[in-house]
Write a structure and sequence with these properties.
GO terms for molecular function: Rab geranylgeranyltransferase activity. It holds the Pfam family PPTA. Belongs to the protein prenyltransferase subunit alpha family. The protein is mainly α. The protein is built from 19 helices and three strands. The chain has a domain of 120 residues. A hairpin with a 4-residue loop joins strand 2 and strand 3. Helix 3 runs antiparallel to helix 4. The radius of gyration is 27 Å and the shape is elongated.
Length: 420
């Protein structure tokens, strides 16, 4: 194992590797006549492939060896922890040792190499969602650009999460070129692993550094910052068109809408563009979560929200279908039972429509109850959450049938969202 460790270390130190893949090989696979065997090196693409079995053996060997790291040089320890992190990106001991061994002051080159290493590790698809790696990457940025003291006064209008020390701007602002490079790299990780919360959190952090740089640390003009934010909104729209189910992406978009200072018309236009993409998929919860956010956060006016809701034909049709159905039969129809259990295309289409109607009505009632247009009651909760047909639940003998009371409440609510 020691010879394999030396061989892999030599490859990592010699060649400019930008991507690593861990692969499995059949036991009886013939050994290729290659000087880098058992590793596969694609120099033109700067890619390295490591057999999983070999990596597991190296991990066990280096784990034991690391227990005596005080007998090894700092450079040797950095080499060992690098390979341990290729197998296990959340190896806290390895990450902690690296932070202790890499000096902060006057060692910019070492810190830049550490940033390159985290990029390499995060290129492994299984590692792209490692919270420890993303946190370590922020530590490198802090060391490179020196974070401002945590005692910085926060504005009263900042949300509690933005007052956290992790969000504080750096004493020496991160150059705009570095921020743009980081945003591009981060998006590849978001694309590699769906709903990558930790990658999107890191993106919030890097954008916060750009937006909230202290006056004494500004490394770019206000105009350049505005252009960077415009480019970011364009990138997000493209990403969202490819990943309309990504809740972490829509959560980040909500963050961007509330933290960037832009003209109201520009903000409304961006919201409309996001909504146009998400509204094509009413069976996904992302569009409904986005509508809740922009309404309840008062990002746009209620009137603007109603107009926005009706601007997309698919969602407008859902609204009118609910309003025109006196018994909400489409809402309580179960597609699976209606199709006799057969997974036909017609049944799938019916299921999609049923889910869209359910999410639509729940969202409208949520918004309505927030603005006190409708009262949240147990009977409505049972209907919306359990999807029980109205006749299945009856109120007390002294009260009229449940369905009549329910329909009156819902019809009155739906009328508020229809543009005449």
């Amino acid at each position: 194992m020691e010879s394999l460790y030396s061989h892999l270390t030599h490859i990592l130190n010699t060649f400019p590797i930008s991507e690593i893949d861990i692969f499995s090989i059949p036991i009886d696979a013939p050994a290729p006549a290659d000087e880098h065997h058992p590793f596969l090196l694609f120099q033109e693409n700067h890619q390295l492939a490591i057999p999983k079995k070999v990596l597991l053996g190296l991990y066990a060997h280096l784990t034991q060896k690391l227990k005596h790291h005080h007998h090894h040089s700092p450079l040797e320890t950095l080499h060992m922890t690098r390979i341990l992190l290729i197998q296990n990106p959340d190896h806290q001991t390895a990450l902690s040792l690296r932070r202790k061994l890499i000096p902060h002051n006057d060692h910019q080159e070492l810190l830049k190499k550490e940033l390159e290493l985290t990029s390499l590790l995060l290129s492994i698809s299984s590692h792209a969602k490692s919270s420890s790696l993303w946190s370590h990457r922020r530590w490198v940025f802090h060391a490179l650009f020196h974070q401002a003291p945590a005692t910085r006064l926060c504005h009263d209008d900042e949300s509690p999460i933005l007052q956290d020390a992790i969000y504080q701007p750096h004493t020496h602002a991160i150059p705009l070129t570095q921020i743009e490079k980081e945003l591009a790299f981060n998006l590849t990780a978001c694309d590699a692993y769906p709903r990558n919360y930790y990658a999107w959190f890191h993106r919030k952090w890097i954008m916060h550094q750009l937006i909230h740089s202290t006056p004494s640390s500004v490394s770019s003009s206000d105009h350049e910052k505005e252009e960077a934010c415009d480019s970011e909104r364009t990138r997000l729209l493209h990403f969202l068109s490819l990943h309309p189910r990504d809740h972490s992406a829509t959560n980040y978009i909500s963050f961007l809408i509330t933290t960037t200072t832009i003209p109201h018309a520009t903000r409304v236009k961006f919201i409309q563009d996001v909504y146009t993409i998400l509204a094509q998929y009413p069976q996904y919860e992302t569009v409904w979560s986005f509508l809740k956010f922009i309404t309840i956060s008062r990002t746009i006016t209620i009137r603007e929200m109603v107009v926005l809701f009706n601007s997309h034909p698919d969602l407008s049709q859902l609204l009118h279908s609910l309003n025109n159905d006196d018994n909400f039969s489409m809402f309580v129809t179960h597609a699976s039972s209606a199709s006799g259990g057969h997974n036909t295309l017609a049944a799938q289409e019916l299921q999609v429509r049923e889910r869209s109607l359910i999410l639509c009505l729940r969202t409208l009632y949520f918004i309505g109850s927030h603005f006190q247009w409708a009262e949240w009651t147990d009977d409505v909760a049972l209907f919306l959450l359990l999807r029980l047909p109205p006749p299945a639940i009856l109120s007390s003998p002294d009260q009229p049938p449940f369905s009549h009371s329910l329909h009156t409440k819902l019809k009155s609510l739906l009328e508020r969202f229809i543009v005449r």
